[in-house]
Amino acid sequence: MAEYLMGIDAGTGSVRVALFDFRGQNRAYAVAEYGTTYPKNGWAEQSDYEWFEALKKAIPECIKKAGIAADNIAAITCDATTNTLVYLDENDTSVRPPILWMDVRATEEASFIDTIREEYDATKFYKPGFRADTMVPKCMWVKKNEPENWAKTTYRKKDSQHVCCSIPLEL
């Protein structure tokens, strides 16, 4: 019978995996790091390939430390940073490095949203001073500055969706 819960947190510099029993006692913990690149001032990107490599390392390590079989895990929950965007093609392959939550390259696009926000139902709820680190300005930036990547993009996912939907089923 499955008796353990797994929690996965994909943060800015590492993925952390923990196993708990049903009483809430931590049974094991593992960490695998990955890097961040800063191509220009205010920009921050990561490799989703490195995220998955870290995930493939940390999950088995945590299970081994706990001394349990993978089929003893009843449920898995996953969380990751917010406003990190992954641009995927029709084959679910990245067309560019994910733009990290702290990236503020889309300041012009955020300012533009401020000028039109009252005109459209979709943007009326935004407060003045729209932030460049959020998803909509980042999408606008990619569409404007990397039209070839935007054209190849079929899906845009937050990193939490991308990481959590890619947990290795074979554990």
Task: Describe this entry's structure for a reader.
This protein is α+β, with helices and mostly antiparallel strands. It has 5 helices and 6 strands. The strands form 2 sheets. The protein has a 4-stranded mixed beta sheet with strand order 3-2-1-4. The protein has a two-stranded antiparallel ribbon with strand order 5-6. Helix 2 crosses helix 3. The longest helix is centred in the middle third of the chain and has 19 residues, at about 50-65. The two termini are about 15 Å apart.
> Which stretches are poorly predicted, pLDDT < 50 over at least 5 residues?
none
| SS-derived structural category | alpha+beta
Overall pLDDT confidence:
89
Radius of gyration: 19 Å
Helix content percent band: 25-40%
Query: Helix-strand pattern, N to C?
Result: EEEHEEHHHEH
Shape: elongated
N/C terminus separation = 17 Å
Question: Helical segment tally?
Answer: 5
Say how many strands there are: 6
Largest beta sheet: strand ordering: 3-2-1-4
Largest sheet: 4 strands, mixed
- Estimate the strand proportion: 15-25%
